[in-house]
Amino acid sequence: MRVFHIHESFTELPGPPATLPSAGYLWIASGRREFEVEQAQVQAALQQLTGGQLVDLHTSDLLNNQLPSHFDYTSWYDLMVFRRLAAGSGTASMFLDEDRGTVSTAMAALQAIDTSPVGFAVFDRVLLSVHPADCQARDFFITRLMQIAQGTGTTRLPPSPADLMLRMINHLVDSYLELRRLLTRQLTALQQDLLTPRRRPMNWSALLESRNSLHLLEDICEDQRSAMQEWIDAMAEWPPATDKIARREVELLEVRSRDVLEHIERVLSHVRRLEASAEGAVQMHFSAQSQRTNDIMRTLTVLTAIFLPLNLITGIFGMNFEALPLMHSARGFWIAFGIMVGVGVGLGLFFWRKRYIGTSR
Predict the structure, then answer these.
(1) Tell me: the pLDDT tens digits for 86-101?
(2) What distance in Å separates the CA atoms of residue 280 and residue 55, rounded to the nearest whole number?
(3) Whole-prediction pTM value?
């Protein structure tokens, strides 16, 4: 667990202070396991700093690794749980392995996306964030805020805990954009695998799991959008600011909240396009298979139609009659053979002109 004081500077403290600083606010960043172990100390620090503790149900929400994105509030703090979309371990190696290009690879890449939740408890002057063990967003923002405090950043320090939370959520949403290239390439490999004739059977179980993974991503994005919309609705019920600076900060929070919501809508739209693309590839696969089956049946039908009169001729000359024409003639075989060749060639040319034989266009 790391504690920072944010005002005109960005300072890391050795631990939660006994009282709130005279200006600025505190950011308490903790891993989920550390928060579980040091839960009593964190609750005592929040009671001392803010005059209130986390509700037991909200504490359980922050510790739940399977909780969907949602928003809740009390009279002394707001709670936001937001599931991230980030590349999990091993996804980078899948991205580099371009030659595999199979449905199994695409499915594995989709399953490797990390969707662990990040929790935020927003007090008036304290922000408590609970992160997964390998969450890079916390380290990224610590480094970024240090750069801003040193004058090397392009923006100013977040003026409030809510602003810092929105910036972190925006970073979690934008981190999905790094996965767009990976997912697009893997879905392209899936489509090529569906549309390319293979001698081996198609791995339909892997395809089904990849489609289920896309459905899961869509559900996560919809939960994110609902949580952010509830946050925006809760902001609309805040008491009106009394001075110009406070009103400006609230307006900036509203702008940033709408921007985050717009980014979530963009991600959701991309996930739906990927899902529609995969669905379209499946439909095209079955259409191609149906066309191929029709071509095979047409060829077999044409061959049957060509050999049917030939079988009729051989059947006639195979009858056991003594007075059958051409049976006792020296040229009878060649005449019958010529008739059969003529009939076969004539029917073949007829079907070829009708485009029943050959590649259809």
Answers:
(1) 665 544 444 444 444 4
(2) 47
(3) 0.73
